[in-house]
Specification:
Elements lengths: L7 E2 L6 E2 L4 H11 L3 E6 L4 E7 H9 L19 E3 L6 H5 L5 E5 L5 E6 H11 L6 E9 L4 H8 L5 E7 L6 E8 L5 H13 L3 E8 L3
Parallel strand pairs: 2-3, 5-6
Antiparallel strand pairs: 1-7, 3-4, 6-7, 8-10, 8-11, 9-10
Helix pairs in contact: 1-2
Amino acid sequence: MKVRYHYVQKADVKYCDISCTVKEAYDYLKETGYRSIPVLKNEGKTFIGFIYKVHLLEHYVEHNGKESDPIEPLVQNQDAYIYEEDSFFKTFLTIRRLPFLAVLNEEKEFSGIITHSNIMDVLEDSFGMKTGGVLLTVGTKEHKGAIKDLVTAVKDINIEGLLTMDNGDKYIRRIILNLSGELSEKKLQKVIKKLEDKEFRVTSVDRIDHK
């Protein structure tokens, strides 16, 4: 899964140019309602970093800054970017406390941003929030081939998605299975029994309606 399939395109991103003054940037942040936006240069091609509303306010209030001052000294997070061809899951390691990440193409030009909302969309898709389905949370003692055994036990059911948790735990692992939404209650109970006969423990069952 690549970043290029899951980000906000540049045409839909609010940003300011590095040539903006403190007042221009502050007014634009107030207008857009964002607490931070990307800063670009070279006619919007080159990513410079983020400008935060809080830093603009600090410049005014705490440092007696002028409205005509340039924003360049206030730009933060110059390295907060990721490439279109990077693995989407790299964003989990990179974004953390940042409001978003800039996305660059192979020419290192600004292409857009990836947000926490984009990440949530991917997770929702994994949980079947868009397609609907039955989510089984299955607990198992950690052992070699656990996932293979689980998939084999439900091989006659269409698996829409699979997510593992507690990876690296020496004793227990939780696996979330997203099964076809057309699964009847009778068939579901057979699946649960089959899993429990294989020493898996079904800890919760959730039906997700199709959006």
